[in-house]
From TrEMBL:
This is Alanine racemase. Gene3D superfamilies: Alanine racemase, D-serine dehydratase-like domain. The lineage of its organism: Bacteria, Pseudomonadati, Pseudomonadota, Gammaproteobacteria, Alteromonadales. Belongs to the DSD1 family. It comes from Idiomarina fontislapidosi. It comes from the Bacteria. Coiled coil: none annotated. Pfam families: Ala_racemase_N (PF01168), D-ser_dehydrat (PF14031). The keyword Lyase applies. InterPro entries: Ala_racemase_N, D-amino_acid_metab_enzyme, D-ser_dehydrat-like_dom, D-ser_dehydrat-like_sf, PLP-binding_barrel. SUPFAM superfamilies: PLP-binding barrel. Keywords: Lyase.
Amino acid sequence: MPWNAIETPYLRVDQPRFDNNIQRLNCHLNALNTPLRPHVKTVKSLPAVKAIFNGGTGPITVSTLKEADFFAQHGFDDQIYAVGIAENKLPHVKRLIEQGIDLKIILESETQACNVVEFCRLHDVVIPTLVEVDCDGSRAGLTPDSQALMAVSQLLADAQLFKGVLLHAGGSYGCSTRAEKVAAAENERATAVRVKDQLAGVDIACPIVSIGSTPTAHFAQDLSGVTEVRAGVYVFFDLVMANINVCSLDDIALSVVTTVIGVKPEKGWILIDAGWMALSRDRGTAHQAIDYGYGMVLDAAGRPLDGWVVESTSQEHGIIKHRAGLTDIPSDIQVGDQLRILPNHACATASQFDKYYVSNAEDELIDEWPRFNYWT
Ligand SMILES: Cc1ncc(COP(=O)(O)O)c(C=O)c1O
């Protein structure tokens, strides 16, 4: 099928870039002797995850139990569900464990730990559980060195459910210099190892020490004491990652292809058929070095239209303007032309679509990868 037979807006993956991004992190982590547990929340697609594992079914991180179910059905039997557990999901977790899936959950409070222990006792099931540790104050997790962390771990260990610790350095998304990212990675590692050692001091073994985000995974210099690293958005990268210098614009493997549906030279506007339904509402670059609005504009061949961004959106319309207020629209842009929009946040933009159209280095359409969304 030729590209122009596909209705816009659609999602396009540049496979050579996707492959390079996977290769880059694999090489880095291989050199540090630490396995990767990719977070499949970004791609939510079997062919994409198979490509990450070169056809295999390695350990994965999931963000929903729908991902857990789907990948379990396709042979991925080692999973961490890396969102703090809610009691209403425990029956679903039990079903997966009873199907033979080594599914681990995470939690960060005594209430959750008591619920899990009680559920396991009542239903005669073992749910392997990791305690989430907060290394930089950016989201969830128990404070390192705290009484609460030791108490929750002990509760789980007494019930033979404790499996280890999980950390996610969310603060690394605010680190733009190399030194900051290296420090965030080392803080994530060192905090994890400190907690592991404290637990060893009270005879609680920590078989899993799981850390990671895309920035820290790429900038870690040493991973000793860690058993695995997690990262998700690294396969596609996006403008948020480019803005903090984790990748370059040329590494971004995902774009939304859109059609020009209006040109307003008097206003300096180009109207496109990609609004927030296609691009998502994510404005992750709003407070970064370069604000790309709802996305950066490329021509149909993937060449940047310098300074042009999707400045505003409604449901199915996008308005492209120049960031510096230039009103001279490139003269060759006409109604009916196609453009590509690089996403602020690949996970959010991908989640607006149900498939990827995949291109090779020769710009040929070589595959379609179905993807899924939602929770149940
Ligand atoms: C618990 C956890 N681990 C790993 C990741 C992957 O990080 P990234 O999106 O930076 O690839 C995320 C992302 O949200 C996460 O929440």
